[in-house]
Each structure stands twice: as C-alpha cells, then as structure tokens.
Amino acid sequence: MTAAAQAAHEEQPRLHGAPLALFTLAVALGTFMEVLDTTITNVAIPHIAGNLAVSSNQGTWVISSYGLASAIAVPLTGWLAQRFGQVRMFVISVLLFTLTSMLCGFATSLPMLVFFRFMQGLVSGPMVPLSQTLLLSNYPPEKKGVALALWAMTVIVAPIFGPLLGGWLTDNLSWPWIFFINAPIGIFSAIATWSLIRHRETPRVKKPIDVVGLVLLFVGVGSLQLMLDNGSDNDWFNSPFILTLAIIAAVALSFFVAWELTDEHPVVDLSLFKSHNFRYGVLALSLGMFCFFGSTVLFPLYLQTVMGYTSTWAGLATAPVGILAFVFSPIIGKNIARLNLRLVASFAFIVFAVTMFWFASFSLDTDFRHMFMPRLLQGIGVACFFVPINTIIMSGLPPHRMAAAAGLSNFFRTLAGSFATAIAVTAWDHRASFHHARLTENMTAFNPVTSGVLDTLQTAGLPLQGAYKQLDQMITQQSFMMATIDVFHSFGLLFLLLIGVIWLTKPIAGTSGGGGGH
C-alpha cells in the first residue's frame, strides 16, 4: 500500500456515537460466533456420533477438521486483506462462515459434516485477526485501548461459554442447532459492518500468489495440527503415524520459513519479527496462552473425571473467569495510555500464578464454592494480560501492516492453545499413571491400611473381588488428583517465569513509564 493510498484511507470520516457502537457490536458478534465454534461442538460429539452412527473417536474429527483448517488460514490474513481489502475480506469471511455453518447443520453423514467443518474453519481464518484490525483502525487513537479491550473480551469469553451453550442446545433442541444459531448472527454482522464502514475500505494491492509458500504452509501447519490433535490417542511418537506427521511438519515448516524470508512476495510476512516488541510480545502471548488455555482445558476435565461433576456443573465452575474479565477489560482499555503495560502484564502473570497454586491446593473434599473462587479471580488476570500484551505487539507498526500482524499473532495464540491441550492432557495422564504405580506398590493384603480398607468394604456388603475393585478406583481417583496438583503447580511456576519475558519488550511512547523505542 502506498503512502498516498494510506493517507487517503485515513482521511475518510471515522464513526462516532451510535454508529460506532453498532459497528462494535457487529464485529464483536462476528468474532464471538467464530471463537464460539471452536468449543461449542465439544460437548455435542456424543450426540453427533450417535445420530450419524459413528464412534465417539470418529466424531472428534468434527473438532479436528475445523482446527486444522483454521490454523492454516489464520496466517494468510495479511495477504488476503491486502488482496481484497480489510472490510471486504471480513464481510466475505463472515458470510461464507454463515453459509458453511448452515451446511454443517444439514449434514447427513460424518464425511459430509467433516468436509463442511473443514470449509468452515478455512473461511473463518481471517475473521478474528481482521476484527481486531478493523476495531483498531476505526476507533480514534485515544480510544484504541478500549477497542482492544472489547476485542479481548470477545475472544476470551466466547470459548468459555461455548460448552455451556452447546450443551443446552444439544439437550433441549438437537445438535444441528449449534450451527444454525450462526445464521442470524452472521447475517447481521456482515450487513451492519459493510453498511457502516465500507467507505473506509483499505486500498487493494494485487500481489502474485506465493504458491510455494502456500503449499509449504498447508503441509507444515496441517501436519502439525493433526499431530497435536491425534498424538494423545496414538501414544505420541511410539506411533509411526504421529512420528511421520512430526517429521513432515518439521521439514515443511523449516523450508517455509526459509522461503518466506527470501521470497519477494511472501504469503506470510515473517519480517514482522524484526520489530522488537512484536517479537517478544508474541512470545509472551504464546507462552501465556499456553498456560492459561492448558489450565482451562484441564480444569473441567478434572472436575468431571475426578470430582464427578456433570458437564453442566463443570461448565458453571469454569465460566466465572468471564465475569471479572468483562468488568475490568474496558477499564484497562480506557486507561491504557496512562499505564505501564509491562507492570500490568506482570501483575496478570502474578494473578495467574496465584490461582494456579490455589488450584494445586485442592483435594477430593473441595466443594463447588472453593472451585468457583479462583476461576473468578482469574478474570482480573485475563483483563490485565490480553489488552496490554496486544497493545505491546501492535506498538510501532504502521497501519497497513496491522492485518498481517494480527493474523500472525493470532496464529501463534491459536497454535499455543493446541499445544497446551495436547501437552496438558498427556502430562496429566502420565503423572496419574506414575502416582498410581507408586500408590499401589504397598497396597498388598499384608499391609495393615489395605487390610483395614478391604475389611470396611466387605463389612459394607462387597465381596472380596468387588472390594479390591473399589480400592483400585479409589487409588485411581487419588492418582488423578495428585496429577492435577502437579500440572497446576507447573503452570504456576511457568507464569512466574513469564514475568521476565514481558520485560524483554521496550516501553511504549505515550504510556506511563514509556520512553519511546519500539
């Protein structure tokens, strides 16, 4: 984009008052719809599998296919935005996402559903990064912190409410409705966005298609996402399939990086990492997202597997993180220019670390109220993390590179979530097996404690074989409880180490403690 074209774009009148509020709602709903679909299907898999006459394991491809396609498409946001224009690309993505959502709802077989979910993920790629870019470019400079806060609230709260909404729709209507509800939201978002800001469309630049880079990206990211999605079920690198995917991903991504750094028209602008704050900001965002998302995945799993919670109650215990995030994010955004962003992010990591150690103090006797409180407190950490970090990432970048920067940072955020899911669940299972082996070492008939428990169970009416089975179930439950403590301890320590990472960024001019330098 030329300087003259950018200047002409900036001269177009900005929105104010009610039109700005309506535009914000339209973009937020589009983003909410896309992010919601990353988790809303999770609780519906048993219903989908039963209705389509497939196994639950086969049903998980409904989730994997979406994540795979989305991971491939997100890094392409910058190139697509330049080729078609940011506003037009966002509206096209929303409309195609709405169409593919409807097709998912009408699917009558698993292959059909998986194909439409793949297409849904593919067209969804630019939606979240461009929603961030459009908000930043259409809000006045002094209110960009508020724009980032509104965006962060949507991106963080949506996946938390996805399982709750998905469970309710599946139980009270039927699984296709988790896709049909996107239709009115998507149509409103597309029409309102186009009507309000089409006059502020960015200039289009017709660049050659980087076919080699595109193929390497597709193969590399696709193999990596498939490895992460299926590694746990296939015993990771003991499986030739997973090992092959890992090798393909490593080779393809290595060639991809080398190619993109030397190609004249790269499909992904890796030169963004030359920006000091972008480089270390994305590192802090990715590692922070790894710990936060890993804990968010593990928490409901622990509640249902170890504590015996239903899906609904596990969702209710998980959801409170959105409450204080919703309250504090606008406050942080409104005062972003007055704050030392590195201090605010450091405070967020301290809050996250405290809540992780709080989770690690739980036992099998912990009640719902005590489960609820640390998740509620985490909302403060969410508000103090995502808004400052994204402000740091975007600092010093010219407007015409915002879409590419948003796409690349969101790609690493999404990838960190995939790594977190795979690693957290695997570590949890392995630690549970370790503790189970240690606990059973002395569980013999000659051990007084074991004999006492078996006598108690037999007195309660269980035969000896049933008593041993019950004892093993008690040991398994305690093993997973101990594994949960281990993993949350690890997340707490990682959050404390992240404080050092955020201080590798430079202060931003115009914020408290800022001294220029980007």
Chain-wise SSE layout:
Blueprint: H1 3-11, H2 17-36, H3 45-51, H4 56-59, H5 61-73, H6 77-84, H7 86-105, H8 110-124, H9 127-138, H10 144-172, H11 177-180, H12 182-197, H13 211-230, H14 240-262, H15 276-305, H16 311-318, H17 321-334, H18 341-359, H19 368-394, H20 402-440, H21 448-459, H22 464-502
Highlighted features:
518 residues; Growth Hormone, Chain: A; disordered N terminus; disordered C terminus
Would you write up a description of this structure?
With 518 residues, the protein is mainly alpha-helical. The protein folds into 3 domains: 209 residues, Growth Hormone, Chain: A (Up-down Bundle); 55 residues, no CATH class; 246 residues, Up-down Bundle (Growth Hormone, Chain: A), CATH 1.20.1250. The protein has 22 helices and no strands. The radius of gyration is 24 Å and the shape is globular. The two termini are 22 Å apart. 47% of the residues are buried.
Offer a quick outline of the entry:
With about 525 residues, this protein is mostly helical.
The mean pLDDT is: 80
Indicate the overall shape: globular
- Tell me the number of strands: 0
**Count of individual domains:** 3
**Beta-strand residue percentage:** under 5%
The CATH top-level class label of the largest domain: Mainly Alpha
- The rounded distance between the terminal residues' Cα atoms is 22 Å
